[in-house]
Design brief:
Two copies of one chain form a homodimer. Helix content of chain A is about 65%, strand content about 5%. Chain A has helices at about 5-15, 20-30, 40-55, 75-85, 100-105, 110-145, 150-190, and strands at about 20, 55-60, 70-75. Chain A has a three-stranded antiparallel β-sheet with strand order 1-3-2. In chain A, helix 1 crosses helix 3, helix 2 crosses helix 3 and helix 6 packs antiparallel against helix 7 (about 150-190). The longest helix of chain A is centred in the last third of the chain and has 39 residues, at about 150-190. The radius of gyration of chain A is 22 Å and the shape is elongated. Chain A binds a DNA duplex through helix 1, helix 2 and helix 3.
DNA sequence: TTTGGCATGTAATCCGTTACATGATTAG
DNA sequence: CTAATCATGTAACGGATTACATGCCAAA
């Protein structure tokens, strides 16, 4: 069994766009794909080392950076491995929803406590939606100016943002419904 | 920092409904809350032992089962701990969406590969939606027959199912849009 | 009697985060 | 000069899964 399967493909995947260092990868995770993926330095650097050992990536050619920066590129072998992974069936995602667990086992709690939780959930998703809408606008803007070559990546990127938006909107709608139901419960409680 | 051991509260929470054994808890996870929570024997039994050590739960009174079954109940201390956790702020959920990663880094792949992935995603979410709709129907049915005391738990349970439905529907809608966009890409490719 | 479900538990191991440790370079 | 940012890396730890190990009971 391959170690750190998911992190491996994040690194491999991001390197497919061009030469990058561990630091670059971390930055891209934080600034761009943070809404659907997180990764720490603690896995990025070991993975880079491991992938180099397997000859899936290699140090980028060109002048060394004075700062000790070490960029990598995909090897042909690495590109093949990435393509293979892209075609592999999706693993079922692990689901652990703390809010739903609280609702499910919160039968003894007052409605107030749960209302507060659902409200937080709504707020977070609203903030998230705003964030994604901005990202979407930026991509659409970029699509107008870029040449056709990069168009495909932008299209894919747009898709990732739009799933986020759809899901966030769904959660917000649910939260509004749920708050109505919980308010009713509270009204009954206080009688 | 002390990260929240989530498994503890699953166990504590499920025990708040009444005496249960480790096996019961596993069954309930599998059959009822599987859509938003998973848990293995490998954590359930150690957690039970740990909680007993902390006096948050205690062996259920009553006749021993011949089969070696060991049921537990919440202590008063346990009930307090649960209530405290219910009111605690939600931790940000860890997001790792394999499909979106594949889309994001799949710029070099043929549209076909991605179409297959998105299609699988749609199918899974459709199956999921069917499952949840059945669960919803059952709860609504139960609400008509149950007495008012258990009504609150049923209401909360219904809310958990409905969030699942909302999100699944959103994903399906997205997938349909995405498939249209990807089909267009494929058409361009083949020219 | 043998299969399947009930029932508990442990060991190996994985995947990943957090916190720590270190140092160079650049902007103010 | 000094703070922020760039940049790499390691050690400790932790939470959870998987696979394994064990055995009882009921029904076919």
């Amino acid at each position: 069994m391959a170690r750190r399967p998911k992190s491996r493909f994040l690194v491999l995947g991001l390197l497919s766009e061009g030469p990058k260092s561990g630091y670059d990868i971390k930055t891209e995770v934080e600034e761009v794909i943070n809404h659907f993926w997180k990764e720490s330095f603690g896995s990025i650097y070991p993975v880079l080392e491991q992938l180099e050992g397997e000859e899936l990536i290699a140090p980028a050619p060109g002048p060394e950076d004075g700062r000790g920066r070490r960029a990598y590129v995909l090897t042909r072998k690495g590109r093949t491995a990435l393509a293979r992974w892209l075609a592999e069936p999706l693993e079922p995602d692990i689901v652990r929803n703390e809010l739903l667990l609280k609702l499910y086992v919160g039968g003894d709690a007052s409605a107030d406590v749960l209302i507060r939780q659902v409200d937080t959930y709504r707020e977070r998703n609203e903030a998230f939606l705003t964030l994604l809408s901005n990202a979407e606008r930026e991509i659409v803007q970029a699509q107008k100016t870029e040449v056709a070559v990069s168009d495909r990546r932008l299209t894919y990127r747009l898709l990732t943002v739009r799933l986020g938006k759809r899901v966030a909107s769904a959660r917000i709608k649910w939260a509004n419904d749920a708050l109505l139901a919980l308010d009713e419960m509270r009204a009954i409680e206080s009688v």
